[in-house]
Amino acid sequence: MTDRAVLAHGFTQTARSWVHMQQLLAPDLDSVAVDLPGHGIAADLATDLWGAADHLVQHGGTGAYVGYSMGGRIALHAALAHADDVHRLVLIGATAGIDDAYERAVRRANDERLADRIEDIGVDPFLDEWLANPLFARLDERSAQRDDRRRNTPTGLASSLRTCGTGTQGPLWGRLSQVRCPTLVLVGEFDPKFTALGERLVDGIDDSRMIVITGSGHSVHLEAPELTAEAIADFLR
């Protein structure tokens, strides 16, 4: 096995979202999950994606970095900014950003509206709207982990969208060849958008491969945790 796994969650989640995955990976693999800026105990921390990557490495240390969605984008930034600390990289439902400047501006405006919405209505009603997104259609009440998501604050989530949203991210597609560590990209069978993005990631990262997790959508580690844990463990051996 490699070093311990450092786990980075998605938007509206916290480090606790990884508890079941950590149980599946143990005892063969030690792991640590980190609350990302705007979430959990880091709710009051506002920073951009590069700052979020610094925060992740500061609290995660050296190891194999596993990031889901927003956490995947942050882990990718960590692999570029802290190559000596990120020995392996697992990206789950992740992207290297939006290429087109106009599309990026539209997304940034949408993220700003979402941030305003969270501040206006609060976390619980926002989660109802957020989890109604077709991206999460395959999550059931258990795997949606609402209790964990409710631990976040409107201010923290709004800050995360404004500082670490995809609309604010400078695209990293042209820098993927600088990722020095072996990389595994995981996507769901029923997630065509991120399957296409995953193929682009593999095309750009020299030492990389992609696995499609059957029977799952965007959140493979929540929808098919056993298959996802097996894929991660095999990659890290």
Provide tags for this entry.
237 residues, alpha/beta, Rossmann fold, six-stranded parallel β-sheet, 10 helices, 44% helix
What would you say this structure looks like, in words?
This protein is α/β, with parallel strands linked by helices and 237 residues long. The protein is 44% helix and 14% strand. The chain has one domain (5-236): Alpha/Beta hydrolase fold, catalytic domain (Rossmann fold), CATH 3.40.50. The protein contains 10 helices and 6 strands, in the order E-H-E-H-E-H-E-H-H-H-H-E-H-E-H-H. The longest helix has 21 residues, at 101-121. The chain is globular, with a radius of gyration of 16 Å.
Spans with pLDDT under 50 lasting ≥5 residues?
Answer: none
Instruction: State the helix count.
Output: 10
CATH fold assignment? Rossmann fold
Helix content: 40-55%
Looking at the overall shape, the CATH architecture is 3-Layer(aba) Sandwich
CATH class assignment: Alpha Beta
What is the residue-mean pLDDT, rounded to a whole number?
97
**What's the shape?**
globular
Main sheet: strands, sense, barrel: 6 strands, parallel
Distance between the termini: 4 Å
CATH superfamily: Alpha/Beta hydrolase fold, catalytic domain
Q: Which strand-content bin applies to the residues?
A: 5-15%
CA radius of gyration is: 16 Å
Number of domains: 1
Structural class: alpha/beta
State the strand order across the main sheet: 2-1-3-4-5-6
Number of strands: 6
Order of helices and strands: EHEHEHEHHHHEHEHH
